[in-house]
Amino acid sequence: MAKKQQAIQAIRGMHDILPEHSPRWHKVEAAIREVVDSYGYQEIRLPIVEKTELFKRSIGEVTDIVEKEMYTFDDRNGDSLTLRPEGTAGCLRACLEHGLLHNQVHRLWYCGPMFRHERPQKGRYRQFYQLGVETYGMAGPDIDAEMILLSERLWKKLGIRNKVELQLNSLGTSEERAAYREKLVDYFKAHLELLDDDSLRRLETNPLRILDSKNPDMKQLIAEAPELMDYLGEDSRNHFHALTATLDDLGVSYVLNSRLVRGLDYYGKTVFEWVTDELGAQGTICAGGRYDGLIEQLGGKTNHAIGFALGMERLLALVEMQADFKVDPMVDAYMIRVGTDAEKVGMRVAEQLRTELSGLKLQVHCGGGSFKSQFKKADKSGAEYAVIIGDEEAARGEVSLKPLRTGEEQQNMPVPELVGALKGWLARRNSRSAS
Ligand code: HAM
Predict the structure, then answer these.
(1) pLDDT tens-digit profile of 143-186?
(2) CA torsion angle for 352, 355, 361, 363 (degrees, to 10)?
């Protein structure tokens, strides 16, 4: 007897999105599309695998992502490739490669899986989905404000604006950061005994990241550290003030967070995060900022860029917490066919309904069975209606329509009348969901 094979399971931190969950994703994705369309953004679709060098050069050699979290492998040619840990680097690579940044302005978005070998926990996965928004060719601060307005509009559309807080900071220019870095290193060196191992390491490699430490023992030390804002030059200050003035003007609330430094090296000037305290430790649902300097770093001419990415799993978790979050049922009508003639006629009627009623979700029962067992399936499908055909109805050219959720009577009718009845119901439903 053949030995029973052990079932193979998914990789830790990489999840299936099962059919019962995909309607929730569709609902959030539809809201995203509506919002990005309303600001005139275009979709860009990018490869999932890029040359490893791209991420090293853009995210930074001494960041957690590049040091510890990338899925890197040699392909059959011996080239080092990496599953993208984020989308900004690939998006900019594509725009440079195709000459899109030459005297042009672009507003782009993408959505897809990213990969980081982090320790999995709730809200932190090894494969996760991001919506990314990237813009090129605009020096700001008006486009900086647009980034924030666009994301805020999405929160409002999804009913979660009161659950998220906008945190803002400016990282200034690379020269300003270098001057600040020196002051910060001096400050931490004067308190070496208070630094944990991670921070001692960062003191040599990336001291600004110490400000991001979650170690409660270092809270006080970090709170008293010098502030980057005090080292910004006039241009950076004006840029930041113009952004906050626009947000004030439009009534967008925010919190200034001078410790917001971000975990990727490519940022300068504006950085922001949308955070919530309803998701436990993984509370940042969206983050981004300006990365003008990266364009030259990847071989382009001086130019401007700002963008953000949001974690789809975190956003969904937040959206699903609302009591009134509902998705449309998968099926509007379920066709029950009992009898040889009924099966044949039913298939024809179903095709006619699909042709004449755009937007109708109709499932035809396949595989036979009694009226009773087919009704059970119809009920379980969540459909609003059962369309019933037995051999007698088939012979008369009729069908029965039974509302499954309202307790209304079942009615016999010829096929054209069925088309009319379902058309009326679809129109009523569409106008309800539009209002
Ligand atoms: P990031 O802060 O690394 O930025 O990621 C953005 C968002 O992706 C996070 O706020 C979080 O919601 C989600 N995220 C990150 N890692 C995970 C994970 N392991 N599991 C689940 N969700 C996660 C970027 O990726 C930049 N590319 C953002 C950007 C675009 N900046 C400019 N343009």
Answers:
(1) 999 999 999 999 999 999 999 999 999 999 999 999 999 999 99
(2) 40
The residue whose CA has the least distance to atom 11 of ligand 1 is: 311
Pocket test for ligand 1, best of 54, 59, 128 (most atoms within 8 A of CB): 128
The yes-or-no verdict on residue 250 having pLDDT over 90 is: yes
Q: Which of 41, 70, 91, 114 best tests ligand 1's pocket when mutated (most atoms within 8 Å of CB)?
A: 114
pTM over 0.90: yes
Give residue-wise pLDDT tens across range 48-68. 999 999 999 999 988 899 999
Per-residue pLDDT tens digits for 203-228: 988 899 899 888 899 989 999 999 99
Q: Domains of the chain by range and CATH?
A: 22-172+232-320 (3.30.930.10), 181-224 (no CATH), 333-434 (3.40.50.800)
Give the atom of ligand 1 at the shortest distance from the alpha carbon of 130. 8
Determine the distance separating the centroid of ligand 1 and the alpha carbon of 345, expressed in angstroms.
53
Contact 221, 214 (CB under 8 A): no
Q: Which atom of ligand 1 is nearest to the CA of 273?
A: 10
Place of tokens 């009591």: 323
